C-alpha cells in the first residue's frame, strides 16, 4: 500500500470517511463528528474568559463583499461562485435534454450574487466597520464558518469544503500583536492538551502568479504568518492545523475600520483547521475513542 495514501485508506475502510466521487469532498461518520464537537467545546473553553463576540456564518457571502475583500487579486485559483437556474419552461426543457445526452448544461446557469466563503474572518470586517469607530480596547470576535477553496486532492487533510474556527482581534498594533503572541502560546498549550506532537514555523499563504512569490517572500520576512504543524498523512510532511496571522492594516484600510485616534485598525487572528485537527487526533490516538488517553478525552468532553 502507498504510504502516502494508507491513512486515507484506513479512514475509508473504517467507515470514518465516505467518498463522494469528488476529490477533497468527504462524508463523515458519527465518530468524526463527536471529535469535532469535542474540539468546538474545548476551543470555546480556551477563549471563554476573553468574552469575544460570537459570530457564525453560512458557507457563502455576498459577491460585492467578496470583491471588496481583494481575495481575487491574491487567490483567484481557490475561489468558488454560486450559480443557479433562472430560465423559463423552454430553457428547462433544453437543460434536461442536455443532461440526458450527457452534454454540458452549465450555460443555463446564472450568477446568484453569492460567492463561497474563502475564510471565516472575511464576513466579520464589514459588520464591525458598519458600527463605526472602535472602542478604546478594540474588538474580539469568535467566528466560525464552512469555507471553500478549489484545491482538489486525495489527501484527506486537503479539503475543498472545510470548517474554520477563528478568534479575530481588531484594534491598535499593540493590541493585535499582543493578541497573536498570546494565542501562539495558547495554541501550543491546546495542542499539548490533545496529546499531539507539533512544531511552529513561519509560513506564507499560497499567493497566485509571479507576483505571488514576492508577496509570499515578504510575508515570511515580516513574520506575518506562523503555522502549528502536526504530522498526519503517512509519508508526507506535517500539516498546518492552526495558524497565527497578522494582517497589519489591510482589512482596516479595506473596510475603513478606525481606532479612536483615527488610524486604520489592524487585525490578527488565530485560526483552527477543524477537520485537520480531527484527523490529527485520529492519526495519533487511533480510531477507537475508548482507547484514547483519559486526559485527551477529558479535554474534549468525550466521557
TrEMBL record:
Molecular functions (GO terms): ligase activity
Top-level lineage group: Bacteria
Record key words, sorted: Ligase
Species the sequence originates in: Sphingomonas insulae
InterPro entries reported for this sequence: aa-tRNA-synth_II/BPL/LPL
Protein name: Amino acid--[acyl-carrier-protein] ligase
Amino acid at each position: 500500500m502507498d504510504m502516502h495514501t494508507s491513512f486515507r485508506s484506513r479512514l475509508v475502510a473504517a467507515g470514518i470517511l465516505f467518498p463522494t466521487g469528488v476529490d477533497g469532498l468527504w462524508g463523515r461518520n458519527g465518530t468524526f463528528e463527536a471529535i469535532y464537537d469535542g474540539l468546538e467545546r474545548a476551543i470555546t473553553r480556551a477563549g471563554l474568559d476573553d468574552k469575544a463576540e460570537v459570530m457564525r456564518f453560512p458557507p457563502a457571502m455576498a459577491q460585492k463583499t467578496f470583491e471588496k475583500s481583494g481575495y481575487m487579486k491574491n487567490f483567484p485559483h481557490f475561489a468558488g461562485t454560486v450559480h443557479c437556474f433562472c430560465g423559463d419552461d423552454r430553457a428547462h426543457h433544453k437543460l434536461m435534454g442536455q443532461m440526458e445526452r450527457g452534454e454540458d448544461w452549465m450555460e443555463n446557469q446564472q450568477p446568484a450574487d453569492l460567492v463561497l466563503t474563502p475564510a471565516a474572518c472575511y464576513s466579520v470586517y464589514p459588520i464591525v466597520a458598519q458600527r463605526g469607530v472602535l472602542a478604546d480596547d478594540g474588538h474580539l470576535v469568535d467566528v466560525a464558518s464552512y469555507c471553500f477553496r478549489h484545491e482538489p486532492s486525495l489527501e484527506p487533510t486537503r479539503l475543498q469544503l472545510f470548517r474554520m474556527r477563528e478568534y479575530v482581534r481588531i484594534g491598535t498594533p499593540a493590541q493585535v500583536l499582543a493578541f497573536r503572541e498570546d494565542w501562539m502560546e495558547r495554541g501550543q498549550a491546546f495542542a499539548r492538551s490533545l496529546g499531539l506532537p507539533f512544531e511552529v514555523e513561519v509560513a506564507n499563504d499560497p499567493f497566485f502568479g509571479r507576483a505571488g512569490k514576492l508577496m509570499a517572500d515578504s510575508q515570511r520576512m515580516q513574520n506575518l504568518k506562523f503555522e502549528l504543524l502536526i504530522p498526519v498523512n503517512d509519508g508526507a510532511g506535517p500539516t498546518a492545523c492552526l495558524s497565527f496571522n497578522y494582517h497589519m492594516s489591510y482589512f482596516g484600510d479595506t473596510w475603513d475600520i478606525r481606532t479612536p485616534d483615527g488610524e486604520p485598525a489592524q487585525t490578527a487572528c488565530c485560526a483552527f483547521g477543524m477537520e485537520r485537527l480531527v484527523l490529527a487526533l485520529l492519526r495519533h490516538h487511533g480510531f477507537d475513542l475508548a482507547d484514547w488517553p483519559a486526559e485527551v478525552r477529558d479535554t474534549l468532553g468525550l466521557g
